[in-house]
Amino acid sequence: MLNLSHNNLSGFTPTSFEGMNGLSYVDISYNDLEGPPPNSSGFWNALSEALQVNKGLCGNIEAQKSCKHNSKKDRKVIFVILFPLLGALVLLLAFFMFAFLIARRKKNQTLEQNDDMLEEISFSILDFDGKTIGSLATTLSNDHEAKELGWSKRVNIVKDLANALSDMHHNCLPPIVHRDISSKNVLLDSEYEACVSDFGTAKFKNPESTNWTVTVELAYTMEVTETCDGYSFGVVTLEIIIGRHPGDVFSSLSSGASPSSSSTSPAPEMSILDVLDQCISPPSKREAEEVVSLVKIAFASLNPSPQCRPTMEKVSQLLSSTQRLHLSKPLHMTTFGELLALDGFTT
C-alpha cells in the first residue's frame, strides 16, 4: 500500500509505478495530478476516495472521466511541432519574395540608375591569366614598349576590345555601357591580350573638352547608350594605329569634311601611311589590309549620327571573320579619300 495524498504533487503520474507488481493499493487524493494513471493494479483497485481532488485524472478507473485526445499535452506537442514549421515557411516565402523583387529591379533598372552595382559585378572579360604589364596608354607612350607592339599585336588588341564591348552590350542583361572606354582603361597582359577595366562612373567633361573619347551627344545631352562606347572604340582604335591619342591630329584629319558628311572625314589627299605609328616598321601587304580595315571601321564608329554607327556586335563579327579591305595599290600611295570610298570587304 502506498499513500501519496495531500503532497501537492502535480503533472502526470509516473509510469514507473507500472513496474511495481507488489503494489496493491495507492492513494493519490488531494494532489494536482493529471492524465491517465499507470497500468498498475494498485491504481485499478483504488477507490474513488483515493483518487479524488486531482484536476486532470482520467481513464477507465473508479469515477474518473475518460481521457480526451485533445489534452493540453497534445496541444503543446502540436504547437511545438507546427510553430517552427510555420516560421520556416514564412521565412521561405519572405526569401522568395525578396529574390523576386531583386530580380525585377535588376530587369527594370538600367546601368545608369545603379552605377554602384558595376563595382560588384565580375565579368570573364576582366580576368587575367598572365601578368599585367600595364595599360594600353602607358605602352603606346613608351617608345621601347611601343616597338614591341607590332601590327599583328595591335590588330589583335582591337579585336579583344571589340569582343569585350560586344559581350557587354549584347550578352549581358541588362546591357552594360562602360561610358569611359579609353586607352587608360584597356589593360594588357604579358601576351599582349587586352581586357577592359575600370567600370566606375564615367568622368564627363563640358562640350568644349578636348577629350575625344567623349561623344558629342554625351557631352551635350548626357544621354548614355551603347553607341557612346562605339564612338570611344573608334577613338581607341585610331590611337592604336596612330601610336598616340588622335585628338591632336583630328583637326587635320577632319579639315576636308563637309557639313553634310555622314562620318568624320579626314583630308582626302592625306596618305594613310603618313598617319601610321612611325616607331614600328610599315605593315606588310596582308597587315596593311587588316590595318586599313580597322581604320575604315574606326571612322564608321565615329559617325556624328549615333544611329548610323555599327553596333559592337557587328564590329566584332567583321573583325572575327576573314573579310578585309582589298587595296588596289601600295599603302604609301593610298589616301584617306580612296580608303573611305571603298565599299565592302573581301575574303
TrEMBL record:
It holds the Pfam family LRR_8. The keyword Transmembrane helix applies. GO terms for molecular function: ATP binding; protein serine/threonine kinase activity. One of its GO terms (cellular component) is membrane. This is non-specific serine/threonine protein kinase. PANTHER family: LEUCINE RICH REPEAT KINASE 2, MDIS1-INTERACTING RECEPTOR LIKE KINASE 2-LIKE ISOFORM X1. Keywords: ATP-binding, Kinase, Leucine-rich repeat, Membrane, Nucleotide-binding, Receptor, Repeat, Serine/threonine-protein kinase, Transferase, Transmembrane, Transmembrane helix. SUPFAM superfamilies: L domain-like, Protein kinase-like (PK-like). It is found in: Membrane. The chain crosses the membrane at residues 77-103. Its main location: membrane. It catalyses: L-seryl-[protein] + ATP = O-phospho-L-seryl-[protein] + ADP + H(+); L-threonyl-[protein] + ATP = O-phospho-L-threonyl-[protein] + ADP + H(+). Coiled coil: none annotated. Its EC number is 2.7.11.1. The keyword NAD does not apply. InterPro entries: Kinase-like_dom_sf, Leu-rich_rpt, LRR_dom_sf, Prot_kinase_dom, Ser-Thr/Tyr_kinase_cat_dom, Ser_Thr_Kinases_DiverseReg, Tyr_kinase_AS. Residues 1-319 form the Protein kinase domain.
